[in-house]
Amino acid sequence: MNLIKKNITKVKQSATLVINEKSKQLIADGKKVYSFGFGQSPFPVPEKIVSVLKDNAHKKEYLPMQGLEELREAVSKYLFSQTGVNYSKENILITPGSKEAMLLMHVAFNGDILLPTSSWVSYEPQANIAKNKTHWIKTKRENNWFPTADELEKKIKMKIKNKNIILILNSPNNPSGSVCKNLKQLAKIAKKNKILVLSDEIYTDLTFNGSYDSISKYYPEGTLISGGLSKWCGAGGWRLGFIAVPDKLKKFLKSLKTLASESYSTVNTPLQYAAVEAYSGDYENYKNKTRKILEGVGNYAYNNLKSNKILLTPPEGAFYLMPEFLGTKFKNSNHLCEKILEDTGVALLPGSDFGFEPKKMIARLSYTDFDGENFLNSLEDNGNLTDGMVEKFAPNVVEGIKKLSNWAKKI
Amino acid sequence: MNLIKKNITKVKQSATLVINEKSKQLIADGKKVYSFGFGQSPFPVPEKIVSVLKDNAHKKEYLPMQGLEELREAVSKYLFSQTGVNYSKENILITPGSKEAMLLMHVAFNGDILLPTSSWVSYEPQANIAKNKTHWIKTKRENNWFPTADELEKKIKMKIKNKNIILILNSPNNPSGSVCKNLKQLAKIAKKNKILVLSDEIYTDLTFNGSYDSISKYYPEGTLISGGLSKWCGAGGWRLGFIAVPDKLKKFLKSLKTLASESYSTVNTPLQYAAVEAYSGDYENYKNKTRKILEGVGNYAYNNLKSNKILLTPPEGAFYLMPEFLGTKFKNSNHLCEKILEDTGVALLPGSDFGFEPKKMIARLSYTDFDGENFLNSLEDNGNLTDGMVEKFAPNVVEGIKKLSNWAKKI
Questions:
Q1: A61 to chain B nearest CA, in Å?
Q2: How does B255-292 read in b/e, with b if 16+ C-beta sit within 10 Å?
Q3: Which of B51, B62, B262 sits opposite A103 (nearest CB)?
């Protein structure tokens, strides 16, 4: 009798690991590697927030399982200020990263999961861990890699009538870097068909045009929101996330709370105090500047990559591009990425990890391989960002993009 | 179609919550409450460890999913120094609290779970979340609330042949405060019947006689160890735990790592650096003194409670006693605790939460309702602890015990 449950054995390890291992090997061999694989904010956590963490370092009591009341209130106000929707502090659960919040959602949820292609690497394995069936909605480049209202409705009607459904939406999107423009139409379909939406808003503060759009604005009663400090606040390794649940899902929230109490118990105490500062303090200037830098670097990469060999959608948020390589054939996108890494030192992640068919020659590129602190300090408030600055402060990105572009030209 | 999975709906909320709510209400009404319900270390985290946390507060990179290598190495050395068993750093997974480690174990494990009565509140609900069947082994006061070798073997043979089995052992025990004396014999039965053991060693550093006994010494190839900073280091709210897995379970460990990568990702970065200090620094003096205080307070409570109305086993570790009330009949131990709280202001937890039959008039008492920092600072190195000091530095415990004792006498 196998010691491990079947559905767990089947959860495949992400190809990310393969690329990371290979990158490490190349670096150990003295080769230069352009780290465009891992998606981590390059910016430091704002000093004030770090100092609040220090001030609370000695606190060691268990905080309430749902999260510090002050923090839940701060998150509630933050969401209201961004979306105009009221998720009260009673409807918010603080988690060690938004990934944990999503896993608990899957574990509690009795139904099927809808995922647009492309979607973040963890949605599908999480659904598999919880034995929720997933259905992919194919999307098109011309629709910015988001489903149209028609595509969503067809999928619902074709596949999964009479079942509970959660659609997971992530905008700006990892891996595409695109922003969803038809939230209102999607909301209408969701409402009509009584499906729920998990709006993964971990990148929404990194929308380059500065607007914070959320499907909760158009469908508050059916939208769960997840978010956290990892991206906009540069605090990936801190592990602070949340999930906000609409009023009519009170019972579901109760199950999430039970699961929280039987897993991580409560989030690290000093960190929760620091997060109060992050969500209630004024970090608009920090956000504006980091967005400006990411937009500048993203556009530089975009302009220098797009060609008759590389299809690309312009960057609109987060810190990703999703190049598709034309005129080349490898067994799958994993092999494509291995070959690119070998030939150029540029580490990318294969599109197959994000729901694309393995044969599609598509990859995710994270343009964060630069010293964010240095770049941030060099940009004046309301200052302009030039290509010259990108060349000066993000030399690895510039060099890696050039190598990748040349590689594609030789295909 | 229910929105929540059946097995999750069935996970009952701990009666702890009911008692906590009731306590809060009483406090809000201006009544004095003796907080003997919640089990939290009263001592501060050692200053040096707090200062390492501060020094690393600005670090925000994601650490490796399995945990910082330096920390895994420190935990490996710590376990070797305590048990003489080598769990290499590759065999250790760092988790946000040992509870999370145990849940992941349940989620991955394909088999049944053996729990001695009494056992910690979360083992059974965690098994239910992961749909693992649990079997209780009844234990006796005269055997210190641990199963005998015979009792263990009978349960294995009677119930669950041809299945994978994990026995969860916790010594010193929550809720009984007893130490398991027959680990060697239990190990023999486990080995013979090829069952696995999860040794929950979260309290083992708080064994009052100073010895660290672990079933891994007698059955290293089949013992998983979980532990963390919550109890011996006073850092419950910090959420830092680990699980150590024997070599022959490499595949199982791989599944745990996959689950880690799909849930919490990695533990808070500054905290992991602080934990390196906790596991590699010399905290023997701190441990000795906190053990001495807990032993002194525990014995005071024991001596002033035991009577012909209250059965008690002497405290040997952790910070719990498990009084059984004679000559009284309530509907169940939950009602017993509610009545005690109403009549005396003493908050206890019902034995039914720990696996006892609800009708058994038994409860858990945590004797940590005192200012641990103050007490610790007042105790000289190698100084003696007197009843007078307990009365001075743990007045709530002294008063609450008196009220409880008087209440029992009037039954």
A1: 5
A2: bbbbbbbbbbbbbbbbbbbbbbbbbeeebeebbebbbb
A3: B262
Cα B226 to Cα B199: distance, rounded to the nearest angstrom: 6
Residue B67 region by backbone torsions, left for phi larger than 0, else alpha for psi between -120 and 50, else beta = left
Closest CA–CA distance from residue A6 to any residue of chain B (Å) = 8
Lookup: tokens for A307: 């060609």
> What letter represents residue B409's amino acid?
K
CA distance B214 to B203: 11
- Considering only CB atoms, B269 lies closest to which of A107, A109, A237, namely A237
What does the pLDDT look like over A277-328, one tens digit per residue?
A: 999 999 999 999 999 999 999 999 999 999 999 999 999 999 999 999 998 8
Closest to B348 (Cα-Cα) out of B52, B90, B18:
B18
Look at B96 and A99 and tell me if their CB atoms are within 8 Å. no
How many secondary structure helices (H) and strands (E) does chain A include? 15, 14
Q: Which of A153, A134, A167 is nearest to A10 (CA)?
A: A134
Domains of chain A, CATH where assigned: 6-44+284-409 (3.90.1150.10), 51-280 (3.40.640.10)
What are the tokens at A279?
């969500």
- Cα angle value B206/B90/A26 (rounded, 5°): 145
Give the ipTM. 0.96
Centre a 10 Å sphere on the Cβ of residue A38 and count the other Cβ atoms it contains.
17
Q: Which residues of B touch A38 (CB under 8 A)?
A: 62
CB contact under 8 A, A269 and B11: no
- Count the residues in chain B: 411
**Cβ-proximal residues to A316 (8 Å cutoff; 6+ apart), any chain:** A172, A177, A178, A179, A207, A208, A209
Contact between A302 and A312 (Cβ < 8 Å): yes
Compare all CA atoms of chain B with the CA of A42 and give the residue at the minimum distance: B61
Residues in chain A: 411
Q: What is the pLDDT of residues A130-187, one digit of tens each?
A: 999 999 999 999 999 999 999 999 999 886 667 899 999 999 999 999 999 999 999 9
Residue keyed to tokens 């709510």: B21
Q: Which residues of B356-369 are buried (b: 16+ CB within 10 A; e: fewer)?
A: bebebbbbbbbbbb
pTM of the model: 0.97
Structure tokens belonging to residue A30? 């003295």
